[in-house]
């Protein structure tokens, strides 16, 4: 009986080691593209040469109408570094970013996701400088942790609305300081829906409250590979039996 208990313990141990060995090395990595351009959404892109497809980063983005019928339609989403001026031209829209914005100025040499509000009639409020939009980020695999940085939240209206298609509580950000950064972190995320900015701000009734998003860092949830796990466990057990057999042969000799 003691030998049986010892063997069972060893099998459990080596199988556990097999699981650990089979786990991929997961580290949080930025999911923000490191070049300027327009994020490809369900709206497509204004220009194919500056279009950024995020599927290679493990997620897709859908732009959503945030105020229903009338007013605003789905927003465009760009990656912007304030160090440079950029112009994006499509068949019906022309979006220009300078090195200084009317109200929301991120750090130089930093990449931020910058929404551009568009009216349902196809007009650009503030010449494209109203950073307001609602977006659905859908990941190809579950992320064990997601961190979001919000830039320049000065009025209520910005925050995460849904995680994995379910409402979340206490995830709307409070009004903060000009050009300040607020952070939210979530766990076991397959998708999230986020509202950036407030087009109907009572604090800024003329222009609204524009907000940028960055700092998206995700860690894929580690899943053990069953075949590798069992293979490592079996090899370890076999090695243990071989070691015990060799010891018996030496003693017999």
TrEMBL record:
Signal peptide from the UniProt entry: 1-28
Keywords per UniProt: Signal
Residue intervals of the Ice-binding protein C-terminal domain: 222-247
The protein's name in its UniProt record: PEP-CTERM sorting domain-containing protein
Organism ancestry: Bacteria, Bacillati, Cyanobacteriota, Cyanophyceae, Nostocales
